[in-house]
Amino acid sequence: KNEVEQSPQNLTAQEGEFITINCSYSVGISALHWLQQHPGGGIVSLFMLSSGKKKHGRLIATINIQEKHSSLHITASHPRDSAVYICAVESRGGSARQLTFGSGTQLTVLP
Amino acid sequence: ETGVTQSPTHLIKTRGQQVTLRCSSQSGHNTVSWYQQALGQGPQFIFQYYREEENGRGNFPPRFSGLQFPNYSSELNVNALELDDSALYLCASSLGAGFLQETQYFGPGTRLLVL
Predict the structure, then answer these.
(1) Distance between CA B71 and CA B62 in Å, rounded?
(2) How far apart are CA B75 and CA B97, in angstroms?
(3) Which of A21, A28, A31, A36 is 20 to 30 A away from residue A60, measured at CA?
(4) Tell me: the pLDDT tens digits for B55-68?
């Protein structure tokens, strides 16, 4: 069983729809990251959170530490939101901080 | 733009060869991490360097090695390449010492194909 599970693996939405991507993890973490990866490989960090909720523009990320679960929401989705969204949990082995990644959710927003 | 660059962008090697991938971090970023991302999968942590010392390693064999230099550049070296080493290799830098919760800034990656 993977330490970080994302769902769904693939998601197709119409422009304007509200989108939710889920992430569950099984290990103790110090923080959880949501990342966006566009075709070609470049990764952009969207959020880093360890509790509660963060909002940036149309993006909202929440985390429930007790339930080991996080969600990424996109309001009023747009075709330019099409990308792979990756959840990664941050744990510490000794002094090194390590990210363990989920396999990603491929989002396609149709015009 | 994250300010993190990687070279080369693409590379083709044959099995058994050696390869060096390079990463240039943002100025002032003391920590660099390297990740391997196979096609269709999430990235996997290879190792992390802080101020030129390795301070964490994932489940990768010793033929994966690295260096970090004082000018905020770093290298990933892979010896005795295997077909399964074909992947996108990403570096990410951050400001702190590796034990703080900080944003990591990713480079665009180097896509390696081993034939």
Answers:
(1) 25
(2) 19
(3) A28
(4) 888 889 999 999 99
**pLDDT band at residue B13 using 50, 70 and 90 as cut-offs:** very high
Alpha carbon of B46 to those of A56, A95, B14, B49: distances in Å?
30, 15, 21, 10
- What count of Cα atoms within 13 Å lies in the side-chain half-sphere of residue B39? 7
Secondary structure letter of residue A81 according to DSSP = G
d(CA B10, CA A101): 23
Q: How close A85 gets to chain B, by Cα (Å)?
A: 10
* Alpha-carbon torsion angle A98, A102, A108, B2, nearest 10: 10
Closest CB to A30: pick one of B41, B42, B101: B101
Parallel/antiparallel/unpaired status of strands B19-24 and B5-7: antiparallel
**At which residue do the structure tokens 């510490």 appear?**
A92
Task: Report which of A96, A105, A83 is spatially closest to residue A24, judged by C-alpha positions.
Answer: A105
- Residues of B numbered 96-115 whose beta carbons fall under 8 angstroms of chain A's beta carbons: which are they? 97-109, 111
Of chain A residues 12-41, which have a CB less than 8 A from chain B? Answer: 30-31, 33, 35, 40-41
Q: How far is CA A74 from CA A45, A57, B63, in A?
A: 15, 9, 41
